[in-house]
Amino acid sequence: RESMPMAHMSAAMRTWLERLVPNASHASTAIRRKALSKNVDVILGALATKKATPVSLKDLYRYGQDPNLRLHHAQFLHREVPIRVSQRVMELRCLPFGLSESHGIKEVIDNYTSYTIDLLTMDPPCEEEDLETFSRYMQYLLQDNTEVVQTMALGVIQARRSIKEEDLPDFRRLVDLVLVRFFTARIGLRFIIEQFIASREYKTGFAGVIESFCNPVLIAQRAAEDASQLCRQHKDVAPKVLFHTPGANFTEDLQFTYVPHHLHYMLTEILKNSMRATVECHAPNSLPPIKVVFVAGNEDTTIKIIDEGGGIPRSEIEPIWNFFHSTAEAPTRIEGTGPSSEELGHWMDVLRDRKSRELGGPSIPPSALAGYGVGLPLSRLFARYFGGDITITSMEGFGTDAYLHIPRLGTNCEALPAPVQMSPGEKDSTYVPYPGYTAY
Fold it and tell me: Buried-most residue among 56, 249, 420, 434 (CB within 10 A)?
């Protein structure tokens, strides 16, 4: 179709298009795209000043459950995604220390800019028959965006090498502030898109990617399998993982409403760290097992991961939550191969091996076994997105206990507990580091 139905576009978008392209509603796609690309800086800046629209978990659950709401959800995404993506572009463009000029960051900026132009050029979905085309683009956006974590990591690692020693503390603080905002917003953006895509097909027990009776033990077992395979590929061995559910009925007491692939990502990252520490601390023929304990409380379901990997010095507990703080050698980018490293290639093999065991939503591939320094801080953002948390206690010289606190998302996302009500996931996916903070 060459004409552009504009009824479902915001007044501001209609005004921009009419100003940039006279008779925009009748202009060809090629003409519209050319005009938008020519004025992309103005458009990104204007979109970035708009506020992201909060979407409640209750509404998202309803969108995932009722196929009759898919057109409404698609129209919302067509308006909302350009705003959220433009905000991230403008933040990344303003980074000091040469960060915005590093190859990895520039790659993310260019990709995000192209998503905005694509969506403003694209016909808004107006009829049911438009949904398939729009769904295909949303699926492409998700897949194209999968390696952003590794690409950003390599960009920051590249920029860090040129930072003077005296500037490193300021550099680290800035990186953490920007990336906490960036990745929190990215979790929210992917979540609302995943919910739309998954709602296309009915799956028992799910509303989109939200599972009504999520069983953390089953998810932990799968995460342990993936982490073990990755550990064996890098270290030749992997410790056993033992699961304990004291005082709980395996099939009933521990089940709760949650997003299973978020939980899988967090558990895999924690288990990877525990396995690496255990293998590096003990002889291959005497590896102590890692224990995973599940307890369902009134407010949270808590998962405790216990290892005997030598622990973490007390002075290092806080730094482990900083992005790109890693005790392993950073992976390098091989020219011409994109953000993949040998380690990331190993992980992609793991993903291919487990395609038949999808968890109800698109996979979030964990980083390599070690070296990027994003796994733990990103996992904590996933936990905090819905009002949970990850905490770590250590006994240096013996081992580490990691606690993953997961609040129940009510009953099918209704009657939400207080921590969830105040979480980024229940609001607009925005992280505000202190009162009065303003940004795009």
Answer: 420
Closest alpha carbon to 243 in 265, 269, 223, 229: 223
Identity of the residue numbered 386: F
One-letter amino acid for residue 373 of the chain: G
Q: Which residues contact 103 (CB under 8 A, 6 or more apart)?
A: 154, 155, 158
The SS3 call for residue 294 is strand
Angle separating helix axes 70-93 and 40-48, nearest 10 degrees:
110
Taking a C-beta distance cutoff of 8 angstroms, is the pair 152, 179 a contact? yes
- What 3-state class would DSSP assign to 291? strand
The single-letter DSSP state of residue 434 is S
Q: What is the pLDDT of residues 373-397, one digit of tens each?
A: 788 999 999 999 999 999 999 999 9
Secondary structure element (H or E) that encloses residue 344, with its range: helix 342-353
CA distance 300 to 405: 6
**Cβ pair 205, 218 in contact under 8 A:** no
Q: How far apart are CA 422 and CA 434, in angstroms?
A: 15
Give me the helices (H) in 238-305, please. 260-281
Report which of 99, 106, 149 is spatially closest to residue 368, judged by C-alpha positions: 149
Residue 181's H or E segment, with its range, is helix 168-198
Sign of CA dihedral 61, 65, 69, 74: positive
User: Residue 32 burial by CB count (10 A; 0-12/13-18/19+): exposed, middle or buried?
Assistant: buried
Q: What is the pLDDT of residues 49-70, one digit of tens each?
A: 988 999 999 999 999 999 899 9
Picking from 290, 274, 276, the residue whose alpha carbon sits closest to that of residue 242 is 290
